[in-house]
Amino acid sequence: MWNTITDYVSNPKFLKKFHGWMTILWMTLLIPSLIWWKESVPWVVTMSVWANIAGHWSSWQASRVEVKEDKREG
Q1: What is the DSSP letter of 38?
Q2: DSSP state, 37?
Q3: Within 10 A of 67 (CB to CB), how many other CB atoms are there?
Q4: Domain limits at 58?
Q5: CA-to-CA distance for 58 and 70, rounded, in angstroms?
Q6: Measured between alpha carbons, how far is 41 from 22 in angstroms, rounded to an integer?
Q7: DSSP 8-state code for residue 46
Q8: Is residue 50 pLDDT above 80, yes or no?
Q9: Cα–Cα distance list, 35 to 6, 27, 50 (Å)
Q10: What is d(CA 18, CA 56) in angstroms, rounded to the nearest whole number?
């Protein structure tokens, strides 16, 4: 079980897909979170969602580079 998880986490193609989909997920959650939680602290909600978008976006970009490097080496 642990080896399977480790294999996925170290696979740049998996990470590229995972972070790409997580970026899209967090982008789609931005508007609903502002609508549903507008009575709470919208700035904190917006920044929290944006932090998730930015983190996954940058990880996705890094994973894309790893995929290109793997193609070049192999």
Answers
A1: T
A2: T
A3: 16
A4: 2-73
A5: 19
A6: 23
A7: H
A8: yes
A9: 38, 14, 15
A10: 9
